[in-house]
Specification:
This protein has about 425 residues and is an alpha+beta fold. The protein has a single domain, classed as Cytochrome-c3 Hydrogenase, chain B (Orthogonal Bundle). The chain is about 45% helix and about 15% strand. The strands form 4 sheets. The chain has a 4-stranded mixed beta sheet, covered by helices on one side. Strands 8-7-6-9 form a 4-stranded mixed beta sheet. The chain has a 3-stranded antiparallel beta sheet with strand order 10-11-12. Strand 11 and strand 12 form a beta hairpin. The longest helix has about 30 residues. It is globular, with a radius of gyration of 21 Å.
């Protein structure tokens, strides 16, 4: 006798996908993370386009990670064209990147993840009991949106102010000082998120060993850009060799490609960054990590939620120092390319993990583009942690409703960016 348990809409995850867990004789037979959204073929669309046109196209891959796609593309294109950017450009790009991290992490931690842990179906349902937390999460998100809009030229999504070699315009020192003071005021809100998430019971059902990867910031600080990748196995690999790290392949149950490293699943994202760069954390962010750290951070993906909360605080603490440096510098001229033919790989840490943009350019036109997103890298590990979780929950004889919710929590913990639509989780019993 077979039995299906169906959740028609897995809320609080972007995109049109699903999870199917097949169980036979009370054992897990198969786990599939299905991505139903059709390929948009962005990499083919940009072939024959100029680098400037590419910058207006690739951020359309994702409205949530629009800054990360823009930034990764800029880094790849500027490497290919041999563009040397001034210090203030780097600082402003870092600020815009922090804005996206704050916006995305605040949305996920306060409004998408916390309802699961607190026993609510949505953030709206939390308002009566946790209205202050929801409000402060929204204020953090609003602040991140404000920075993104500023960087984009008064346009938060798909802004056109970020250009090869610099920016079309820079914010005034008055505006920067306002952002600095606002960041200071929001620090207690980020602390509230960490303390609330850190106080919750995090079950160990999906815990299993995995490999973590993140970029190695070149300045020895905690950060979200780099030209090499740190791996929890102790290796370090240049982003130019990204194909050795990702090894993309196609699976029949998904439109999204999959990645493994040396034949094994791996994870990217906030949890990977915090674990691999933990010694570089500073200020209150470092103290909170030390307070809530335990060995499960290395095996349990549910800790990605807490890692995101810590990174939100880190960004807010860094912004005042970043702005102080920006104010001291004059607005530079746009840096010009030194060639029209070349190849370059740009990598940044999107909120959900490493994002690669590779370009081959000839005579000023793109000949080839290759884009690998964090969620595509995480999908194999999501399936593996769901399988481990399902096996343990079945052994504990939990009911199907409890198993379904807890497996959804594993998927949500990765904050997967599929797009924005309905989701389905199905448990098939035979």
């Amino acid at each position: 006798m077979s039995k299906n348990i169906v959740v028609k809409k897995l809320a609080r995850v972007e995109g049109n996908g699903g999870i199917t867990v097949e169980i036979e004789n009370n054992k897990v037979k198969d786990v599939k993370v299905n991505i139903y959204e059709g390929p948009r073929l962005i990499e083919a669309v940009v072939v024959g386009k100029t680098p400037e046109e590419d910058l207006t196209i690739v951020p359309r891959i994702c409205a949530i990670c629009t800054i990360s796609h823009k930034y990764a593309a800029l880094r790849g294109l500027e490497k290919a064209l041999d563009v040397k950017i001034p210090e203030k450009v780097h600082l402003f790009r870092t600020l815009m990147h922090f804005g996206e991290m704050i916006e995305s992490h605040a949305l996920h931690v306060f409004l998408l993840a916390l309802p699961d842990f607190l026993g609510f179906p949505s953030a709206v349902a939390m308002v009566d009991k946790y209205g202050d937390e929801v409000t402060k999460g929204l204020l953090l998100k609003k602040y991140g949106n404000k920075i993104m809009r500023l960087a984009g030229g008064d346009r938060m999504i798909h802004g056109s102010n970020q250009i090869i070699g610099g920016f079309g315009k820079y914010p005034s020192n008055e505006v920067l000082r306002e952002l600095k003071e606002e960041a200071k005021k929001l620090i207690p809100y980020a602390e509230m998120g960490i303390e609330l998430m850190g106080s919750l019971e995090i079950e160990d059902y999906p815990a299993t060993d995995t490999i973590f990867m993140c970029l190695n910031p070149p300045d020895g600080k905690y950060g979200f850009v780099g030209d090499s990748v740190l791996i929890s196995t102790g290796e370090e690999v240049s982003v130019d060799e990204y194909k050795k790290l990702t090894n993309e392949r196609v699976v029949p149950h998904s439109f999204a490609k999959r990645s493994t490293y040396q034949g094994k699943p791996f994870s990217v994202g906030a949890q990977a960054r915090v674990l691999l760069l933990k010694d570089r954390l500073t200020g209150k962010a470092k103290k909170y990590f030390e307070k809530y750290y335990n060995e499960q951070w290395h095996t349990n993906p549910l800790y990605n939620n807490l890692a995101q909360a810590i990174e939100t605080l880190y960004c807010l603490e860094e912004i005042p120092n970043l702005i102080d440096k920006m104010i001291k510098l004059k607005d530079p001229e746009v840096a010009k390319p030194n060639r029209t033919t070349g190849s370059g790989t740009g990598a940044v840490e999107a909120p959900r993990g490493i994002l690669y943009h590779h370009y081959d350019i000839k005579d000023g036109l793109i000949q080839k583009a290759d884009i690998i997103t964090p969620t595509a890298q995480n999908l194999d590990d999501i399936e593996r942690h769901i399988r481990v979780g399902a096996e343990k929950l079945l052994a504990r004889k939990e009911n199907d409703q409890s198993i379904t919710l807890k497996l959804e929590m594993v998927a949500r913990a990765y904050d997967p960016c599929i797009s924005c639509s309905a989701h389905m989780v199905r448990i098939k019993r035979k």
